[in-house]
Amino acid sequence: MDLFNLPRTFTGGFVTGTTMANFSALAVARQWFGTQLEQDITADGLINLSLPVISATPHSSVLKSLAMLGLGRNNLITIPTLSNQREAIDVAKLKLFIEYNFQHQPFILVLNAGTANTADFDAIAEVMELKHTYNCWIHIDAAFGAFAACSSQYQHLLNGWEMADSIAIDCHKWLNVPYENACFFTRKEHFKLQFNQFKNSNVPYLENQLENFNFMNILPENSRRLKALPVLFSLLAYGREGYRYIVDNSIDLAQEFGNYIRKSRYFELLAEVRLNIVCFKVTAACDTAEFLQKLNKTGLVFMTPTTFNHEKGIRAAFVNWRTTIEDIKLVYSLIENIINSK
Ligand SMILES: *Cc1c(COP(=O)(O)O)cnc(C)c1O
Q: Residues with Cβ < 8 Å from 132, sequence gap 6 or more?
């Protein structure tokens, strides 16, 4: 929490990835929603409840979570983004929608702090104002965007996130720990809801009382590895300063690569480089899939395909602590070789 400048108003726990972090946080949100209508969903199931979940461009894992939680992927209410160049929610449209439809009803809102395609951020502080007027749970998927908190130049993107009810953060991305590591934070005032959601009840030989704290009763898994250990070691080894360097370095390199794409005759940016992700397309006479296959086959660089604004594209995401400007220069020559070998 200190690394992210978050106040001690949250409790946290480790899970395998942000998919599970989103799932777990939304499970607590679901239990909160039931409580608003005097129903205990974990005890009685979803009986005649239609549970509104609102977002603009949620990560696929949010939809998967809705599916796993019995809320239904198709029930997500989608609010338009600011423009077709942006993945951030149009707050004015969101406000109007809520005013018309949810004036007196509870609802769940899922915000993005760093979308996977273009690292776009919803205007978090502005959306948080809704909490003064409406009865809502606000969850933030901050899988990698949370790390903007380490950068003095970019931390403003997270303004207001301390007001969230829950936050999901990946540790195996920008924190650079081995795979299967993420965490989620929930406000301390929601602790009882979280306990009711995940308690491992009716087992006499395992402690399951609220008073006897055990992570088994506030997280989805019972048996689990000590995921906090690699995180602790990494934090001890690099500290706040180390992560400030890693994050700023990734962002600088993404900007550098973005400038290269902007100037190149073979490529075009599909979106502004907002943080550490460069989303671009091939404009040279070369098929995107074929280009990517050749590039990744070199074993020296790995980029992933995407679609953005109805166009086929490529995303280059910068998170690794070892990446330097030399690697970026190597990438320039690799991709130009591929284009010119056509
Ligand atoms: C990667 C990512 C996820 C899913 O995380 P996993 O660790 O793969 O489960 C969710 N949301 C965003 C924004 C992500 O970038």
A: none
Task: Say if CB 15 and CB 184 are below 8 A apart.
Answer: yes
Q: Is the CB of 59 under 6 A from ligand 1?
A: yes
DSSP-derived pairing of the beta strands 267-269 and 304-308: unpaired
Q: Rounded to the nearest whole angstrom, what is the distance from the C-alpha of residue 250 to the centroid of ligand 1?
A: 18
Strands (E) across the chain are located at: 10-15, 53-55, 76-78, 107-112, 136-141, 166-170, 182-187, 267-269, 277-282, 304-308, 311-317
Q: Fold for 244-340, please state it.
A: Aspartate Aminotransferase, domain 1 (3.90.1150)
Give the model confidence (pLDDT) of 205-231 as tens digits. 666 666 678 899 999 999 999 999 999
Cβ–ligand 1 distance for 144 under 6 Å, the answer yes
pLDDT in tens, 306-325: 999 999 999 999 999 999 99
229-265 pLDDT, tens digit each: 999 999 999 999 999 999 999 999 999 999 999 999 9
Specify the CATH architecture of the domain 10-225.
Answer: 3-Layer(aba) Sandwich (3.40)
Write down the pTM of the prediction. 0.96
Domain boundaries in the chain?
A: 10-225, 244-340
Q: What are phi and psi of 105, to 5 degrees?
A: -125, 145
Closest Cα partner for 313 from 334, 337, 336, 292? 292
Calculate the alpha carbon distances from 198 to 27, 136, 157, 183, 316 in Å: 9, 21, 32, 15, 37
Cα of 330 vs its chain's centroid, Å: 30
201, pLDDT greater than 90: no
**What is the whole-number distance in angstroms between the Cα of residue 27 and the centre of ligand 1?**
17
CB 182 near ligand 1, within 6 Å = yes
